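Chapter review: from sequence to fold.
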Amino acid sequence: MTAAIQPTQKPQFAESRTLGQQDWRCKLTGKTIILLARFFSGYTVRWVDCQPDTCQRVYFANHTSHLDAVVLWSALPPEIRRLTRPVAAKDYWGKTRWKRFLAKSFNAMLIDRKSIKVHQSPVDLMIREMGDLFSLIVFPEGGRADDGEMGEFKSGIYYLAKKRPDLELVPVYMENLNRILPRGEYMPVPLLSSITIGHPIWLETGEPKADFLARAREAVRGLKEQ
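The token string follows.
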């Protein structure tokens, strides 16, 4: 069953930063990416105790493939997709001119994991770039798991929740993407996959970092059984 998108008043924001300002090549490539993502992943999407909404959110998911960000972004309803930016690794998506163009086409926010500066943390960059309009797609494990098993969550999502307590943190479980594009492969194999989007969580007042990270991880892992 397809859930109805809840109307949310859009905050004022610089229109020049929306997808509508990208050139026609990016727009066309973005539409092509959506079609290819649907073809290769054959995904089905389920919203469990959560409704599609254009309010600011952080969709946080398990990470098993370079396709994860593209597929999850493509699977969102159009009204949400245009306001959502996947956070992706610059060392992969920024490696070549072609990959940089693809990343721009799905409005990715590239994070350099190899040169993190004290005065400009990835979390501060995310908060600045999302402003008061965009939602994010993040992968708290940091790296991909070859066997499909979830690793421990890094602390970034905790500090993001602490600095922006108003954001809804929405858990997402993605299944079978690691088989569609395994590590070391360059050509995806068309297979079926599933995306389960769960009930939002928030950082509780005074909640220790370790407890929050464990709770957030369990919120994602628990969707596997839904």
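Two observations follow directly from the output. The domain at 20-225 is CATH 3.40.1130.10 (Glycerol-3-phosphate (1)-acyltransferase). The CA atoms of residues 5 and 52 lie 5 Å apart.
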